[in-house]
Amino acid sequence: MNEVNKKVQNNMEDFLEEEDFGKLLDTFDKSKEEAIFEGKIVAIKNDGVYVDIGKKSEGLLALEEIQDDKGNLAFNIGDSIKVATVGHRDGRAVSHKKALSKEKVVEFIKNYNEESENIFDVKVINKNKGGIVAVNDDGVEFFIPKSQYGFKDSNNVVGKNFKVKIIKVDKEEQSIIASRKKILDDERKKRKEVINEILDKNELIEGLVKKITTYGMFVDVGGIDGLVHYSEISYKGPVNPSSLYKEGDKVPVKIIKYDKDKKHLSLSIKAALPDPWSEIKGSLEVGDTIKVVVSNIEPYGAFVDLGNDIEGFLHISEISWDKNIKNPKDYISKGEEIDVEVIEINSNERRLRVSLRNLLSKPFDEFTKKYKVGEVVKGIITSTTAFGAFVKIDNVEGLLHNEDASWDRNDKCKDAFNVSDEIEVKIIKIDEENQKISLSIKELKSSPVQEYSKTHKVGDIVKGIIRDIKDFGVFVELSENVDALIHKEDISPNMLEGLKIGDEIEAAIAFIDEKKNRIRLSVKNLLRLKEREALNEINSDDKMTLGDIIKEQLS
Description:
The protein is α+β, with helices and mostly antiparallel strands and 555 residues long. 21% of the residues lie in helices and 38% in strands.
């Protein structure tokens, strides 16, 4: 680095301490020594270019200054070239780039008008002890002293771009001093004025969308950027900003908060709009049917748009009468227009719940119109339990209880069927009040009692094994799956006391009910029959009269 530049940097530090622009410019007095000359290349040796700058003086120019990226020479021996001395006149160092840079500065100063725009975009190209050097788009150099940086850390400033404001131009000294801090101060002042103005008015403001993020968007209001959080965009609730707006859109906003310490401005779009929840108060009631558009579908339900920035919720259980609905997408589609019934509305909590199934025909009502008790139908097993199985017939489910699934009391539905099996059943009961349907498979087959009654009738004497003893009587197993009941009235107390499970017992058939698969036995009837048989035997075999019997006993 040459002596002139070193002295300039040292003097810049004085400027930082005193903010004396006159003194700052004095540090450039010797910049006059960096005069521009029209020289002539007289020799090129090693890494140096010797330039005749007149008055029997030669300047030494770095070879790299006249080479392109590939090492090709832009000038040759004998060519004229503009150079500027970069040291004292008695020094030999010259620079072609410095000459071009100084020419641009001279031209800029010549055309500079203090009344015109004095803010420029610049790029930092160098940093020294006193400040930084930056150039604008035309390559004109600006000097920014440390006190005019506007930022604390300047370690990585080279290569950065920012705006600066010219604070001093000296035609004689050919110097341009600029400030980034002045730009920031002006912006802060303007920001404060704008914020104070809009805070005082507290009115609706038209803003310009500058940037959209996942958490909201930044909106320019009078040169000041404020954040519209995604929860402050719509009365529907948190929304994705990019689904509604794009950069450059104009939006109405209101200020909802300003943090003076952090200088954060919070804006709201929905606060600038009429509150639709207030508008529907009194105009919408539970039970009303409204037309909505499905705006979003989730596994647990769907959100529907009423068209006035209000969103309602359609729970999965309110989509269909089908209790086994797995996915709402199987019944509705995003963007589909549907009619729903309002089942809950709370303007204060901004909650609206709707139902689609309430407007659909109830499957149970359709079932009762189509089917009657006694009909045989086909259904699909939807689930099995410890007590039976649920069977889907059209859009309703009926219960097939274990005891109605088979005549074998040991059979269980969960062992006999799988989910999705198709089976044939008989409707044995329709409970309209409780909307329940009872089904049976065993009634489609002959009952064990029906088969038993083909070879047995009332009055027959039969034998069986005691299966159970209750207070009201004794259960007797006559054959496989054929049980009979002996009421305690049909057996003597003395005999009843002596019975135990597993004993064989003999009785007479007193009653057979094939439809209900029931048989009643009677021990007392058996005794009567035996007495009658014995009496009949006496009368038929001996053909004796009562008188004969008396005579025989007297003889």
